[in-house]
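Q: A reviewer asked whether we had any structural model of the full assembly, not just the individual parts. We don't, so I'm hoping you can provide one. Inputs are below.
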Amino acid sequence: MSNSTKYIFVTGGVTSSLGKGIIAASLAKLLQARGYSTTIQKLDPYINIDPGTLNPYEHGECFVTDDGAETDLDLGHYERFLNVPTSQANNITTGRIYQSVIEKERRGEFLGKTVQVIPHITDEIKERIQLLSKKGTFDIVITEIGGTVGDIESLPYVEAVRQMLWEFENDCIVIHLTLIPYLAAAGELKTKPTQHSVKQLLELGVQPDILCCRTEHDLDLTLRKKIAKFCNVSMNAVIEAKDAGTIYEVPLLMQKEELDKVVLEKLGLSSKSVPNLESWNKFLGFVQNPSKEVNIGLVGKYVELKDSYKSISEAFIHSGAENDCKVNIKWIHSEKLTKANINDEFEGLDGILVAPGFGSRGISGKIEAVRFARENNVPFFGICLGMQCAVIEFARHELGWTDAHTTEIAEDCKYPVISMMEEQKNIANMGGTMRLGSYKCQVKPESNTFAAYNSDLIFERHRHRYEFNSDFLQDFEKAGMIATGKNPETGLVEVVEIPNHPWFVGTQFHPEYKSTVANPHPLFVAFIAAAIKHNQK
Ligand code: GLN
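A: Here is a predicted structure for the entire assembly that you could use as a starting point for your response.
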């Protein structure tokens, strides 16, 4: 059965936040670099249908795919590492599984049978896992099980894995990511939590093939032997996963530990090929030894939880490396930003990014940030709500429309420069009214946007309800804010720029979702280049 798809399951033990997503993405990178087409999928054990309705404080950023799925931020890591787009099928939640089973039940598809967790929920899970291999494009599907082994919520997923291990005996392996804590008082690394977590997996009928051990110290031979012996894995399957300076170093650390080699051997695949990581290493060189640096202010209302802006901060790493430059992010809370403190807060910044967001909290700080950038000729990048704030700021202070706003916040304002399109108003369900996923955008030549992409037709991902109100476009363009990107089908304004400024770009779409190691996003690259220029002045 050598032509069949291979499945790698990644489970987590002892504690959450061990970085399963990064380990999965790093392994996938190594397999891809050996020529195996690989994809990664995340199964999330919570009951929400998707993370779209979750507060970023709960779950960090909501990542958006080309096909408009609102997903877990780990999918962002998968795309950034692999440079292959993910889709709806790459992120499944318990909510979605149950929704699908219940809909089938309502349609009578179970023919009067009692619908149960086993087999119906587990069958649905297995079907979703196999869906990716049915596309026929992947040699290897890596499935990351969210949560920690032993949680009540993840039981059906572990059971589905157990069944698949039987059904596809030679085509499945399990990697268990675990923690080897260091007890300072004893001066020792401790293996007991790992032994217990493997035992817990065994109770559920799953024997892990490989243990990835998160640790702050080296695992010596004695310790590796001990772990192997007590957890029934071979010595070479005890993989040390030490803390890394950057997540982009993890594939190399995993290669050193031969994780990819062990995986291929256990799956019966050839491990003769040598991973081609030439461009990855080049990128890493720029990340680790940049020749210059710039300071960028990131203005948002969730800056206490940096995961809320994961794709943006990662895009800065990619675009920084492309410019041989380290990007220092200064996290600036929009709620605390006022006219009175902005000069101090923005001292020494080479660029200002106003972040996406929803609702009124922190909006006046964001508008002040735009004003500062515009009036002081500091490179400015506004994303989604950040672009909308740029439009509001321009209307208020350049056009003199003091009552300009977005109808998201001030429904009855005199100048609704950002508003909801008529056809959207009728859709009432939360989540239902959003413009989600990839849309076409026609770019004007002789704009910063065109210069960045070197193309007049681009595709970018969206996640918003409100739009630039085209009724006012003429006034804006007369006063110096130009729509340099428009949707060719609907005429919606997707990009605004101020040509009479060193670099001022606001995008209704989210460019950060498409930035990868192999393809740093052109607008981020151009923004950092402008910031470098500003710095050198
Ligand atoms: N709240 C704004 C809208 O819905 C912007 C959304 C965003 O920044 N992603 O249009």
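A: Points you may want to mention in the reply: The radius of gyration is 25 Å. The CA atoms of residues 215 and 242 lie 5 Å apart.
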